[in-house]
Design a protein that fits this description.
This is Ribosome maturation factor RimP. Keywords: Cytoplasm, Ribosome biogenesis. By secondary structure, the chain is of the alpha+beta class. 24% of the residues lie in helices and 34% in strands. It has two domains: 2-79, GMP Synthetase, Chain A, domain 3; 90-149, Roll (SH3 type barrels), CATH 2.30.30.100. It has a five-stranded antiparallel sheet with strand order 7-6-5-4-8, with no helix packed on it. The chain has a three-stranded mixed sheet with strand order 1-2-3. The longest helix has 18 residues, at 50-67.
Amino acid sequence: MILPIVSAHGAELVDIELKTEQQGWVLRVYVEKLGSAEKRATTRDAAVNLELCAQIARDLSPALDVADPIPHHYHLEVSSPGVERPLRNERDFVRFAGEKARLKLKTATPEGQKVITGTLGEPKEGVVSVVDGPRTYDVSLDNVAAARLVFEFGPAPKPGKHSR
């Protein structure tokens, strides 16, 4: 039900999340520009604006009210997955190869690491390499509990230099 509404607005569905938070249940629908996954677009190029998110939410809310798939009260949020977007499947790892990511593992590496942060390699046969400085970890995608991109700020300005 969500997919056709998102597509009708020229966007593609990235993820859906239903979770309880301090203010109650929240249904989050993450979207990006149509074709972003296929084009392997950067998070910047795939980002959608607030107006598009609002339009999708306006159409999606009454459709969800009619279908009533969630038996309790919740808040609907539609947004871009952001620069620290989650990586959910092998397709995401392929798309963001060369980017910095943080992986939480189900089982520790032989060195005892349960969290690895480094540059992603291209996945091959269900295994992704993660380069962390001098170390390279080969991680089975089945062993990844959670993963997301890591945003890094550019270098700090040199002392005495001011950007205008």
